[in-house]
Amino acid sequence: MSSLLSARRRLAATALAAALAGGLAAGCTPEADGPGTQATAAARPIAQAATKTAAAHATARPTTEKPAPAKTTPAAAPKAPSPSKKPVASGLVAVVGVTDGDTIKVRLAGKTERVRVIGIDTPELRSHDCYAQQAASRMQSLVQSKSVQLLADPTQDDRDRYGRLLRHVRLADGRSVAELLIAGGFGREYTYDVAYNGQAAHLRAQAAAKAAHRGIWSSGCLAAVSPAPAPAPAAPPAPAAAPKSCLIKGNIASDGEKIYHVPGGAFYDVTKISESKGERWFCTESEAQAAGWRPSKR
């Protein structure tokens, strides 16, 4: 920068000297109106411009303007890494074991709880019922080592007499485990004393499984569970009405509890009597109670 300014100053000084010299030379010409005078007049603006230029360059001072500092934006905070596994949704519990087709074990509040699934009864493993192993295996494939949702039903007790929690069980995607098992023929719809939420859906699933002869409704299973007719119950000591008037249904729950239903009761029409399971008809409530059955709550 300094060398460039020095060159400009020398150039301006040279131009000034040349202009002055030309003006002096022209002023010596005696012919006022001759070519010398005209040359002098023409040289004056050039000399004046050169003088101004030289003065400007002589007084100029190099300036060094500092560039404005560049605006800096704070670096964006790094995003937190995505978790390798999706978090378990609220309300889900881990399944740690499968007892059979309708009972599972879950980890709840720091301890293991047994859960009896509401609305289904599956073949018993301990008595080697037809399709019992398949029902247990199907339950394992649905819930073992997975997370499920447990739903209490206000129409049912919180626990059964064995201390098991009574719950509807749903998969993480919302599907009902009981309904899936019933639809596949791995169990039958089961109402314990009082109708539960979702009973109609279970009955529809059972009707579809029956129509398709799936699982327990297949000819092989039906043949295996068709024993010889049970002997007729002993006649009561007192004279009894005709058999057609013995309309009280003595039902046996999957947990072994005996409950009888009278005509007009809330679950009388949906209760089916299977004499092969030890269920029976009674003519009077006193007869049913004497045989060890209790009345339905509805």
UniProtKB/TrEMBL annotation:
Biased composition (Low complexity): 48-87
Positions of the TNase-like domain: 89-219
Signal peptide residue numbers: 1-26
Residue ranges that the Swiss-Prot or TrEMBL entry lists as coiled coil: none
Alphabetically ordered keywords of this record: Endonuclease, Hydrolase, Nuclease, Signal
Cross-referenced Pfam families: SNase
Region listing for Disordered, in residue ranges: 48-88
Protein name per the record: Endonuclease YncB, thermonuclease family
Single Gene Ontology MF annotation: hydrolase activity
